[in-house]
Design a protein that fits this description.
The protein is α/β, with parallel strands linked by helices.
Amino acid sequence: EIARKYHLRLIGPNCLGVIDTGTPLNATFAAGMPPAGPIAFLSHTGALGTAVLDMALAGRIGFSKFVSLGNKADVSEIDLLEAWGDDPASRVILIYVEGLPDGQRFIQVARKVTRHKPVVAIKSGVTKSGSRAVSSHTGSLAGSEAAYKAAFRQAGVIRATSMEALFDYARAFAYQPLLKGDRIGIVTNAGGPGILATDALEHAGLEIPRLARETVGALEAHLPGAASAANPVDVLGDALADRYEHAIRLVLADPNVDGLIVIVTPQAMTEIERTAHVVGRMARETDKPVLGCFMGEARIEAGIEVLRQYGVPNYPFPERAAAALAAMSAYRRERERPIFEAQPCEVCIPPVRELFDRVRAEGRVSIGDAEAREVLEAYGFPVPKSRLAKTSDEAIEVAEEIGYPVVLKVASPDILHKTDVGGVKLNLSTPDDVRDAFDLIVYRAGRYVPGARIWGCLVQQMVSGGREVLVGMSRDPQFGPLVAFGLGGIYVEALKDVAFRVAPFSRQEAEEMIREIRAYPLLEGIRGEPPADHEAMVDALLRVSQLVTDFPEIVELDINPLMVFDEGRGAMAIDMRLVLG
């Protein structure tokens, strides 16, 4: 209250403090001032920060800004992210996240910042035990792993899965030009590490290109006969600095190469420091990122120090250098991706509001298939013919009115997972089938859920011939509505092949969700099958995104299955349930 009165911003309490190397200012409990550099680091926890600062004092990294937030009574990660986005001294922003106060605002701010500056984040508390530890540590809600994964992707934030990776990526972003493509050259004095680098790069989705014919010819003219002039270029174990220089210069000049890893193993004739100077000079002369991989410890220590002076990050193993380039590639793709805003669909809100008010007035929070039809129709979803029947005779009348075959489903506000209690019967073709199914469903429902309110059965048109997908939503405590897409039916929880996005999202995000699941080839059509109606799936995702944005009281929603027909034939919402908060 005192800070607000005088228009002051407050960091903490329970924090390490603030460092600004440009001022210079060190308002922390840390032992010394870290070296200046282009990296801004933001941490929820102070103890982790002291370890990072100690690493910086050892000369391994330089900071522009360093802030430990603690309990965030006022200033949050989002506030600093917004400010540092415009800070010319900070070339890359690192964030250690335990919890966020406003997930939707984080996405909006981070999306703007990442258009011109990389943001790399590590999230703790991704497991159930880790989430409990976060809560007990600071009282923060950890949020779901799926929500953070989706939010970081939508915001263009690069995700690191370890502190080691966080700073590996940071050094590449801070000291090297951004990667302009995915084609990586390798120059090495040992075949094995070159192969490891090749495998790691391809596994990360990067390309090991063929070098131009002119490049190969120039390399062959200079290298010994036993050397390899193909990518990866093997200059052999007896290579001195001048052989490295010739190879590096040619590979960097090749139009087929966008970035370079230089691998040096300390062999008997290796000129460690001279080679490091060569790598540093070549890196300064190009607009392509150059990463060092001087392998070993004792003999290469002086070479690593030389690389540091030139601003060339060194990685002790090829896999870590490849991972850093993969992070640069991911950021390039995110940066180049256009930003599209969510566009409203044509919907009818009043009937949904009336239904929700009626349900609340009855003291209920769950809405099953029989009532959910009103929501689906109001939001433009095609639905099968259906009607509630309170008796078996009425069910037969409805079935003959709709036309056989039909489906019967238990209608109860207390039973959301109907299949679990034997509450669904498919493909009923005669009046006797309908009568028997009605009686059995009502009996089973009463037996398995004693005390449940049984309204009867929903008699529904039998729909077949499509592919079943799931469109769902759960409300995350930090990011709000988290929309899910995957294969539908009864196997969705077992397969766990689901893509997520935080609503509201654009058509482009919806299209990415569909392509993201492992089972997407089944939707494309295999062995001569026609593809499923892609546009209908996109439309369904956008309508659910709008529904859960329009009605924040919805905490859970499942359309399972959404029956998707062949391309051009649309989709139909077969079953829906939702829960109000």
